[in-house]
Design goal:
heterodimer; A: 178 residues; alpha/beta; Glutaredoxin; five-stranded mixed sheet; 4 helices; 38% helix; B: mainly alpha; Helicase, Ruva Protein, domain 3; 6 helices; 0% strand
Chain lengths: 178, 152
Amino acid sequence: MKARYLAPLGIFVLLVIFLGIGLTLNPRDVPSVLIDKPAPRFTLPDLFDPARTVSAADFDGEVWLLNVWGTWCPECWREHGFLMHLAKNEGIKIVGIDWRDERAAALEMLRDEGNPFVAVGFDPESVAIMDWGVYGAPETFLIDRSGNIRWKHTGALTPTLWREKLQPLVVKLKEQSL
Amino acid sequence: MRQLILSLMLSLSVFTVEARVEAYHFDDPAKEARYKQLIDELRCLVCQNQNLAASNAELAQDMRRLTYEMVSEGATNEEVVLFMVERYGDFVLYRPPFKTSTALLWVGPFIMLAIGVLVLVVFVRRRSVGETPELDAQDHERAKRLLDDKKI
């Protein structure tokens, strides 16, 4: 007889557990299909000099970060200081893709806030972005010496993230030779 | 008069539908149909509960443009879908393929249905067994009396 009254409670608890799992999942965290796959090639006009190009091939054989940003994206402004730190103090090579942006606004931002990038490709028409499966900014990819994507993060990079995930991976990848 | 109003309303409704999505021109109506079908089935990654046809997000515009370019250049539906899946994963599909990771999604509803049917069967059986009490002569007598009373 008692079991009969406990049954609804059991069902309720089960429901709460499932809904709880559902609520704590981040729907923006779409698993990237590109992890451990060759990084898509791109050739984009240079943000600083439209006559020149920035290409993924320029960084073959190196461990580098690709950071997708735009002046229209508030998180990118927030992340900018940390990118500066990574480039200056940690010696990380960061390549930027300035996405769906105005050239003048982007140049102004880099002039005022500093430029953490070794090169910036300008992609106002989402030509390269689509190949990388980017759907928001900022997004950051880690590429290893053999040109494979090893890690991806949607949203701003943070010191915690760097310490716990990115840095150990970078150290490991840098140790590997081609 | 009524016809005029009706036709006006109809034309207005057409405008609102067309205003949202940029107009692409196809040389072949079959391609246009395929384009419409594709943007109906592909999911926008920014507004995650909308398909490409309904979403106003900039990424959806880009994805529509790409779909348009591929279709008008003669790509098959499978090629367009494969192109999107290679970049954005199964997430872009409103009809994901059957895999171990999606098995529960596809089979889940049937499992739930089976559980429901099972519970129903057990419930009904138990009830029908419990509710046919044995009646002796005395009960019949009482029932008859009650029924007769009601007639008055």
